[in-house]
Amino acid sequence: MKMNDQMRARLQKMHNLERTGVYPFGHRFKRTHLAKPLHDEYDGLSKDQVIKLDKHVVIGGRMVAKRGSGKVGFADIQDRTGRIQVYIRRDVVGRNNFAFYKHADLGDDFGFDGVMMKTDTGELTVRVTKIHFLDKALRPLPDKYHGLKNKAQRYRQRYLDLISNRDSFDRFEKRTKIIKAVKSYLDNKLNMTEVETPILNTAPSGANARPFVTHHNAMDLDMYLRIALELPLKRLIVGGMERVYEMGRVFRNEGMDPDHNPEFTELETYVQYYDMYDDMDEIEGIFKAAANAVTDNGIVNYQGHKIDMNKPFRRLHMVDAIKDVTGVDFWPKMSLDHAKALAKEHGVEVKPFFGVGNIINQFFEDKVKAHIKQPTFIYGHPSAISPLAKRNLKDPRFTQRFEFYILGTEYGNAYSELNNPFTQLAAFEKQAKEKEEGNAGAESIDYDYVKALQYGLPPTGGIGIGMDRLVMLLTNAKSIRDVLLFPTMRPDE
């Protein structure tokens, strides 16, 4: 371990503590109060009112500021709820205890017994009667005026980010509230059952994505980290569980950008007898519950944009959305050559394996989605890109599928589930052919899932929501790395 002068000085202080009989790395300590509840209770009272109450407390936390001289001192103590000031006098705590404080470094962890008071300037303070040394910090904290400016360091050393950046700390507190609110909505409003399904699978399925591959030594078998939760959950619907959901990590071996991390948290739900329109109602309820958990009025401000979660969410067919923005009308049936000509005319990329449905979707991706601002369901995706969705009976070119967009970003994907085993096998086979032709993200054939369908999958609606993107939206975070405690990073050499 490389050491600078500050670390050497702190190490010497650690040895000094040991020589005086104080263990520098602490034992169990019981607090009676946290910082924020004390501020909530006493900030509105006068100095005399606080003194009259004679409130005894035991607090604990990290020392993040220190000031004073001679025989008295002040320090700011930070716990998970915030900061509170302590006032320490040598004639009250004793010479030895005061020496612990006097020689303490920022970052050291202390416990304090004391009585609530207010200073002449009105600062709520704990007048300390006893000091407990709990932990010695051997490395200095980031400078309080500059903090962690290097984003990579913030992500690699999240613990320092949480100590020095209260906005970051609060964002992760909000993440927990959002997840709890979503689960509460599913548990209590929709009466769903939360389940767990395998992370390791023998075939990648449930999404168009490149998987991570690993190897199981005992079975001498290549396995895949799951890219979606879908197919195991639908097997549970076959088994009669009727209403299930899972919120868990999925893994995709693809690029990284502000919206993508190789591992992320996905929510998927499946409800027997639901269709696409029930799924829309469900997602609208989920997003409103999440927004109400972290806002006072359901209004979300994201990167300068005001998003109103109170209004009914818009519903728009993909073909109509394309026509509204570009003037191109894909409702009339057309040949592949005609569709390619329209793509060329409007500067839309066409890959070798594209059919008409792929071109329609690419039109939407390239020309339309960036124009969507307020919460909008885009439905009617082409069958060519939706192998697991039920076809539209009146126009089988399109499916009973939608994606949910806000500010040009997709936040959810859902459809009336395909439950015809013959159609499903044919869709899998088409995807497998696309993979042979160069589409690395196309699905593999899951024969066991086809077998499950042969036992009967009742009409079912299913949704998928990227929870990290939802948290980004509701906490005004520009990058997915800002809402993942430990985002994927290249090793720091």
TrEMBL record:
Primary gene name: lysS
PROSITE patterns attached to this UniProt entry: AA_TRNA_LIGASE_II
Listed CDD domains: LysRS_core, LysRS_N
Cofactor (UniProt): Mg(2+)
Organism: Acetilactobacillus jinshanensis
Catalysis performed (reactions): tRNA(Lys) + L-lysine + ATP = L-lysyl-tRNA(Lys) + AMP + diphosphate
Binding positions (Mg(2+) 2): E410
Alphabetical list of PANTHER family matching this protein: LYSINE--TRNA LIGASE, CHLOROPLASTIC_MITOCHONDRIAL, LYSYL-TRNA SYNTHETASE
Domain Aminoacyl-transfer RNA synthetases class-II family profile: 175-491
A GO term, aspect molecular function: lysine-tRNA ligase activity
UniProt cross-references to InterPro entries, sorted A to Z: Aa-tRNA-synt_II (IPR004364), aa-tRNA-synth_II (IPR006195), aa-tRNA-synth_II/BPL/LPL (IPR045864), Lys-tRNA-ligase_II (IPR002313), Lys-tRNA-ligase_II_N (IPR044136), Lys-tRNA-synth_II_C (IPR018149), NA-bd_OB-fold (IPR012340), NA-bd_OB_tRNA (IPR004365)
Subunit structure: Homodimer.
Cellular component terms per the entry's GO annotation: cytosol
One of the GO BP terms on file: lysyl-tRNA aminoacylation
Localization terms from the record: Cytoplasm
Cofactor note: Binds 3 Mg(2+) ions per subunit.
Family: Belongs to the class-II aminoacyl-tRNA synthetase family.
Sorted UniProt keywords: Aminoacyl-tRNA synthetase, ATP-binding, Cytoplasm, Ligase, Magnesium, Metal-binding, Nucleotide-binding, Protein biosynthesis
Signal peptide stretch: none
Enzyme class: ligase
Positions contributing to Mg(2+) 1 binding: E403, E410
Protein name per the record: Lysine--tRNA ligase
E.C. number(s) listed in UniProt: 6.1.1.6
